[in-house]
Design a protein that fits this description.
The protein has helices at about 40-55, 95-105, 115-125, 185-190, 195-200, 210-230, 250-260, 270, 275, 285-305; strands spanning about 5-15, 15-25, 30-35, 60-70, 110-115, 135-140, 145-150, 150-155, 235-240, 280. The protein has about 325 residues and is α/β, with parallel strands linked by helices. The chain folds into two domains: about 5-115 and about 285-320, 2-Layer Sandwich (Nucleotidyltransferase, domain 5); about 125-280, Nucleotidyltransferase, domain 5, CATH 3.30.420. The protein is globular and about 60 Å long. It starts with 6 loop residues before the first strand and ends in a 22-residue tail after the last helix. It binds zinc ion (ZN).
Length: about 325
Protein backbone atom coordinates (compact mmCIF):
# COMPACT_ATOMS: atom_id res chain seq x y z
CA UNK A 1 0.00 0.00 0.00
CA UNK A 2 3.05 2.27 0.14
CA UNK A 3 2.49 5.41 -1.86
CA UNK A 4 -1.26 4.87 -2.12
CA UNK A 5 -3.25 7.62 -0.43
CA UNK A 6 -6.05 6.75 1.91
CA UNK A 7 -8.86 9.19 2.48
CA UNK A 8 -10.50 10.01 5.77
CA UNK A 9 -13.45 12.00 7.03
CA UNK A 10 -12.57 14.62 9.65
CA UNK A 11 -15.17 16.36 11.80
CA UNK A 12 -14.39 19.19 14.18
CA UNK A 13 -17.51 19.58 16.28
CA UNK A 14 -17.48 23.01 17.86
CA UNK A 15 -20.01 24.87 19.94
CA UNK A 16 -20.53 27.51 17.24
CA UNK A 17 -19.57 25.66 14.07
CA UNK A 18 -18.80 22.24 12.68
CA UNK A 19 -15.89 21.90 10.27
CA UNK A 20 -16.06 18.76 8.16
CA UNK A 21 -13.37 17.71 5.72
CA UNK A 22 -11.93 14.95 3.60
CA UNK A 23 -8.20 14.53 4.11
CA UNK A 24 -5.39 12.11 3.40
CA UNK A 25 -2.70 10.58 5.58
CA UNK A 26 -0.23 13.30 4.70
CA UNK A 27 -2.38 15.80 6.56
CA UNK A 28 -3.70 17.40 3.38
CA UNK A 29 -7.29 18.70 3.43
CA UNK A 30 -8.86 17.97 0.05
CA UNK A 31 -12.40 19.20 0.64
CA UNK A 32 -13.90 21.15 3.50
CA UNK A 33 -17.10 22.82 4.56
CA UNK A 34 -18.40 24.62 7.64
CA UNK A 35 -21.85 24.36 9.17
CA UNK A 36 -23.18 26.52 12.00
CA UNK A 37 -23.93 24.45 15.09
CA UNK A 38 -27.73 24.28 15.21
CA UNK A 39 -29.74 21.49 16.80
CA UNK A 40 -28.04 18.07 16.84
CA UNK A 41 -30.36 16.37 14.34
CA UNK A 42 -30.06 18.90 11.53
CA UNK A 43 -26.39 19.65 12.15
CA UNK A 44 -25.33 16.02 12.14
CA UNK A 45 -27.51 15.32 9.10
CA UNK A 46 -25.68 18.06 7.17
CA UNK A 47 -22.31 16.69 8.21
CA UNK A 48 -23.29 13.12 7.32
CA UNK A 49 -24.49 14.32 3.91
CA UNK A 50 -21.21 16.09 3.21
CA UNK A 51 -19.18 13.00 4.08
CA UNK A 52 -21.45 10.74 2.06
CA UNK A 53 -21.52 12.95 -1.03
CA UNK A 54 -17.99 14.33 -1.04
CA UNK A 55 -16.48 11.10 0.20
CA UNK A 56 -17.72 9.33 -2.93
CA UNK A 57 -15.40 11.50 -5.02
CA UNK A 58 -12.46 9.87 -3.25
CA UNK A 59 -13.67 6.32 -3.64
CA UNK A 60 -13.92 5.26 -0.03
CA UNK A 61 -13.22 6.71 3.37
CA UNK A 62 -10.89 4.55 5.45
CA UNK A 63 -12.26 6.02 8.69
CA UNK A 64 -13.92 9.07 10.21
CA UNK A 65 -12.47 11.10 13.09
CA UNK A 66 -14.67 13.22 15.32
CA UNK A 67 -13.10 15.90 17.56
CA UNK A 68 -15.86 17.22 19.77
CA UNK A 69 -16.49 20.01 22.20
CA UNK A 70 -16.98 18.64 25.66
CA UNK A 71 -17.48 17.32 28.08
CA UNK A 72 -17.59 13.94 26.37
CA UNK A 73 -17.45 10.33 27.54
CA UNK A 74 -14.19 8.69 26.43
CA UNK A 75 -14.40 5.47 28.48
CA UNK A 76 -14.84 2.80 25.85
CA UNK A 77 -16.37 0.42 28.38
CA UNK A 78 -19.14 2.89 29.18
CA UNK A 79 -22.58 2.62 27.58
CA UNK A 80 -22.31 6.36 27.05
CA UNK A 81 -19.00 6.23 25.19
CA UNK A 82 -19.04 8.90 22.51
CA UNK A 83 -21.81 10.92 24.15
CA UNK A 84 -21.66 14.64 24.94
CA UNK A 85 -22.21 15.27 28.65
CA UNK A 86 -23.93 18.18 30.34
CA UNK A 87 -23.27 21.25 28.23
CA UNK A 88 -24.74 24.72 28.17
CA UNK A 89 -25.05 24.33 24.39
CA UNK A 90 -28.82 24.04 23.96
CA UNK A 91 -30.03 20.62 22.88
CA UNK A 92 -26.64 18.89 22.83
CA UNK A 93 -26.48 17.40 26.32
CA UNK A 94 -26.69 13.62 26.00
CA UNK A 95 -26.12 13.56 22.23
CA UNK A 96 -24.53 10.32 21.01
CA UNK A 97 -22.26 12.13 18.61
CA UNK A 98 -19.74 9.36 17.87
CA UNK A 99 -22.54 6.82 17.56
CA UNK A 100 -24.30 8.98 14.99
CA UNK A 101 -21.35 8.49 12.63
CA UNK A 102 -20.86 4.84 13.51
CA UNK A 103 -24.54 4.29 12.77
CA UNK A 104 -24.33 5.96 9.36
CA UNK A 105 -20.98 4.79 8.03
CA UNK A 106 -19.48 1.32 7.83
CA UNK A 107 -15.95 2.32 8.75
CA UNK A 108 -14.03 2.89 12.00
CA UNK A 109 -14.87 6.09 13.88
CA UNK A 110 -12.22 7.75 16.04
CA UNK A 111 -13.42 10.04 18.79
CA UNK A 112 -11.88 12.44 21.29
CA UNK A 113 -12.14 15.97 22.62
CA UNK A 114 -11.43 18.92 20.34
CA UNK A 115 -8.42 19.95 22.41
CA UNK A 116 -6.95 16.45 22.63
CA UNK A 117 -7.33 16.26 18.86
CA UNK A 118 -5.66 19.64 18.38
CA UNK A 119 -2.82 18.45 20.60
CA UNK A 120 -2.46 15.33 18.44
CA UNK A 121 -2.39 17.44 15.27
CA UNK A 122 0.27 19.79 16.60
CA UNK A 123 2.19 16.69 17.64
CA UNK A 124 1.84 14.98 14.26
CA UNK A 125 2.32 17.92 11.93
CA UNK A 126 2.80 21.13 13.89
CA UNK A 127 4.63 22.94 16.65
CA UNK A 128 5.32 19.85 18.79
CA UNK A 129 6.29 17.29 16.18
CA UNK A 130 9.77 16.89 17.70
CA UNK A 131 8.59 15.97 21.24
CA UNK A 132 6.61 13.10 22.77
CA UNK A 133 4.81 14.97 25.55
CA UNK A 134 2.95 18.22 25.19
CA UNK A 135 0.02 20.28 26.30
CA UNK A 136 -2.14 22.15 23.83
CA UNK A 137 -4.13 25.00 25.34
CA UNK A 138 -6.95 26.96 23.81
CA UNK A 139 -7.79 30.31 25.35
CA UNK A 140 -11.01 31.68 23.92
CA UNK A 141 -14.69 31.47 24.77
CA UNK A 142 -13.55 28.90 27.29
CA UNK A 143 -10.18 27.59 28.39
CA UNK A 144 -9.30 24.01 27.62
CA UNK A 145 -6.28 21.84 27.22
CA UNK A 146 -5.32 18.57 25.60
CA UNK A 147 -2.48 16.55 27.09
CA UNK A 148 -0.49 14.13 24.95
CA UNK A 149 1.89 11.72 26.66
CA UNK A 150 4.07 9.41 24.59
CA UNK A 151 2.01 10.35 21.56
CA UNK A 152 -1.39 9.51 23.07
CA UNK A 153 -3.94 11.83 24.68
CA UNK A 154 -4.65 11.47 28.40
CA UNK A 155 -8.16 10.25 29.21
CA UNK A 156 -8.25 8.68 32.66
CA UNK A 157 -11.31 9.49 34.75
CA UNK A 158 -12.69 11.53 31.84
CA UNK A 159 -10.33 14.01 30.22
CA UNK A 160 -8.38 16.93 31.63
CA UNK A 161 -10.39 20.11 32.27
CA UNK A 162 -7.38 22.34 32.64
CA UNK A 163 -9.35 25.57 32.40
CA UNK A 164 -11.01 25.00 35.75
CA UNK A 165 -8.02 25.15 38.06
CA UNK A 166 -7.98 27.98 40.58
CA UNK A 167 -5.32 30.62 40.03
CA UNK A 168 -3.94 32.89 42.71
CA UNK A 169 -5.84 36.12 42.19
CA UNK A 170 -3.98 39.05 40.67
CA UNK A 171 -3.72 42.04 43.06
CA UNK A 172 -5.39 44.30 40.49
CA UNK A 173 -8.25 41.86 40.01
CA UNK A 174 -9.44 41.06 43.51
CA UNK A 175 -12.87 42.65 43.04
CA UNK A 176 -13.85 40.57 40.01
CA UNK A 177 -16.08 37.59 40.81
CA UNK A 178 -15.33 35.65 37.62
CA UNK A 179 -17.75 34.24 35.07
CA UNK A 180 -17.53 30.44 35.36
CA UNK A 181 -21.05 29.20 36.11
CA UNK A 182 -19.61 26.37 38.20
CA UNK A 183 -16.69 27.98 40.02
CA UNK A 184 -16.83 31.74 39.60
CA UNK A 185 -13.17 32.65 39.68
CA UNK A 186 -11.51 29.53 38.32
CA UNK A 187 -9.03 30.20 35.52
CA UNK A 188 -11.71 30.11 32.83
CA UNK A 189 -13.77 32.38 35.03
CA UNK A 190 -11.08 35.08 35.14
CA UNK A 191 -9.03 34.64 31.94
CA UNK A 192 -11.36 33.48 29.14
CA UNK A 193 -12.60 35.87 26.47
CA UNK A 194 -15.97 36.33 28.24
CA UNK A 195 -14.12 37.05 31.50
CA UNK A 196 -12.11 39.81 29.84
CA UNK A 197 -15.31 41.23 28.38
CA UNK A 198 -17.14 41.09 31.71
CA UNK A 199 -14.26 42.76 33.53
CA UNK A 200 -13.47 45.52 31.04
CA UNK A 201 -16.43 45.78 28.67
CA UNK A 202 -14.07 45.08 25.77
CA UNK A 203 -12.09 42.32 24.15
CA UNK A 204 -8.34 42.18 24.66
CA UNK A 205 -7.65 43.45 21.16
CA UNK A 206 -9.75 46.55 21.83
CA UNK A 207 -7.70 47.49 24.88
CA UNK A 208 -4.71 49.81 24.71
CA UNK A 209 -1.33 48.17 25.26
CA UNK A 210 -0.99 50.02 28.57
CA UNK A 211 -4.29 48.69 29.93
CA UNK A 212 -3.68 46.57 33.06
CA UNK A 213 -5.80 43.80 31.57
CA UNK A 214 -2.81 42.67 29.51
CA UNK A 215 -0.74 42.19 32.65
CA UNK A 216 -3.58 40.45 34.46
CA UNK A 217 -4.25 38.09 31.57
CA UNK A 218 -0.56 37.26 31.10
CA UNK A 219 -0.21 36.56 34.81
CA UNK A 220 -3.13 34.16 34.94
CA UNK A 221 -1.98 32.29 31.84
CA UNK A 222 1.57 32.23 33.20
CA UNK A 223 0.20 30.55 36.32
CA UNK A 224 -1.58 28.00 34.14
CA UNK A 225 1.62 27.12 32.32
CA UNK A 226 3.61 26.93 35.54
CA UNK A 227 1.01 24.61 37.07
CA UNK A 228 1.27 22.39 34.02
CA UNK A 229 5.05 22.27 34.23
CA UNK A 230 4.94 20.98 37.80
CA UNK A 231 2.00 18.60 37.35
CA UNK A 232 2.27 17.21 33.82
CA UNK A 233 5.92 17.93 32.97
CA UNK A 234 5.30 18.55 29.27
CA UNK A 235 8.17 19.01 26.85
CA UNK A 236 6.26 21.84 25.20
CA UNK A 237 3.19 24.01 25.77
CA UNK A 238 1.33 25.20 22.68
CA UNK A 239 -1.10 28.09 23.23
CA UNK A 240 -3.90 28.77 20.75
CA UNK A 241 -7.44 30.10 20.66
CA UNK A 242 -9.04 33.45 20.02
CA UNK A 243 -7.50 35.32 22.97
CA UNK A 244 -4.03 34.06 22.00
CA UNK A 245 -4.48 35.41 18.48
CA UNK A 246 -3.25 38.69 19.99
CA UNK A 247 0.40 38.13 19.15
CA UNK A 248 1.71 40.49 21.82
CA UNK A 249 0.23 38.35 24.60
CA UNK A 250 2.58 35.36 24.38
CA UNK A 251 5.76 37.39 25.09
CA UNK A 252 4.01 38.75 28.20
CA UNK A 253 3.13 35.26 29.42
CA UNK A 254 6.61 33.73 29.26
CA UNK A 255 8.20 35.84 32.02
CA UNK A 256 5.21 35.06 34.22
CA UNK A 257 5.79 31.32 33.70
CA UNK A 258 9.32 31.75 35.01
CA UNK A 259 8.06 33.96 37.83
CA UNK A 260 5.56 31.43 39.08
CA UNK A 261 8.07 28.59 38.88
CA UNK A 262 10.28 30.62 41.18
CA UNK A 263 13.54 29.18 39.93
CA UNK A 264 12.55 25.71 41.14
CA UNK A 265 12.66 24.03 37.71
CA UNK A 266 16.34 24.10 36.88
CA UNK A 267 16.04 23.33 33.20
CA UNK A 268 17.33 25.32 30.26
CA UNK A 269 13.95 24.99 28.55
CA UNK A 270 12.52 27.21 31.28
CA UNK A 271 15.48 29.34 32.30
CA UNK A 272 16.74 30.38 28.88
CA UNK A 273 14.62 28.59 26.28
CA UNK A 274 11.10 29.52 27.30
CA UNK A 275 10.59 31.25 23.93
CA UNK A 276 10.75 27.79 22.37
CA UNK A 277 8.93 26.05 25.22
CA UNK A 278 5.72 28.09 25.45
CA UNK A 279 4.83 28.72 21.84
CA UNK A 280 2.07 29.48 19.36
CA UNK A 281 0.47 26.70 17.29
CA UNK A 282 1.76 26.07 13.79
CA UNK A 283 -1.53 24.75 12.45
CA UNK A 284 -3.60 27.76 13.47
CA UNK A 285 -7.31 27.41 12.92
CA UNK A 286 -6.78 24.06 11.21
CA UNK A 287 -5.57 22.25 14.34
CA UNK A 288 -9.04 21.00 15.21
CA UNK A 289 -9.97 19.48 11.88
CA UNK A 290 -6.45 18.12 11.37
CA UNK A 291 -6.74 16.59 14.82
CA UNK A 292 -9.94 14.88 13.70
CA UNK A 293 -7.95 13.56 10.75
CA UNK A 294 -5.37 12.09 13.15
CA UNK A 295 -8.20 10.46 15.12
CA UNK A 296 -9.45 8.84 11.91
CA UNK A 297 -5.99 7.58 11.01
CA UNK A 298 -5.47 6.19 14.49
CA UNK A 299 -8.89 4.52 14.36
CA UNK A 300 -7.79 2.59 11.27
CA UNK A 301 -4.65 1.49 13.05
CA UNK A 302 -6.68 0.45 16.11
CA UNK A 303 -9.14 -1.50 13.97
CA UNK A 304 -6.33 -3.28 12.14
CA UNK A 305 -4.71 -4.24 15.42
CA UNK A 306 -8.04 -5.43 16.78
CA UNK A 307 -8.64 -7.58 13.71
CA UNK A 308 -5.22 -9.14 14.13
CA UNK A 309 -6.45 -10.43 17.48
CA UNK A 310 -4.32 -8.36 19.78
CA UNK A 311 -6.00 -6.67 22.67
CA UNK A 312 -4.92 -3.04 22.69
CA UNK A 313 -6.17 0.13 24.26
CA UNK A 314 -6.06 2.71 21.54
CA UNK A 315 -5.87 6.41 22.13
CA UNK A 316 -8.30 7.01 19.32
CA UNK A 317 -10.72 4.18 19.89
CA UNK A 318 -13.35 3.23 17.39
CA UNK A 319 -17.05 2.77 17.56
CA UNK A 320 -18.17 -0.50 16.03
CA UNK A 321 -21.96 -0.35 15.83
CA UNK A 322 -23.62 -2.70 13.39
CA UNK A 323 -26.38 -0.97 11.48
CA UNK A 324 -28.24 -2.39 8.54
CA UNK A 325 -28.56 0.88 6.64
CA UNK A 326 -25.05 2.25 7.02
CA UNK A 327 -23.46 3.85 4.00
CA UNK A 328 -20.33 2.23 2.66
CA UNK A 329 -17.39 4.50 3.37
ZN1 LIG B 1 -14.73 26.76 36.22
Amino acid sequence: MAGVSRFFGAVEAGGTKFVVAIGNDRGEILAQERFPTADPTSTLAAVHAFLRQRGQAFGALAAIGVASFGPVELDRTSARYGFIGQTPKAGWSGTDIAGSFAGEFACPVGFDTDVNAAALAEHRWGAARDVKNLVYLTIGTGIGGGVVVDGAPIHGLMHPEIGHIYPRRHPLDLGFDGVCPFHGDCLEGVASGPAILARTGASLQQLDATHPQWEIEADYLGQLCAQLVVTVSPQRIVMGGGVMSQARLLPLIRPRVRHWLGGYIDRSEILTGVDRYVIAPELGDHAGVLGALVLAMDAVAAAATSVSGRNVESSAGSVPRPHSSRSPC
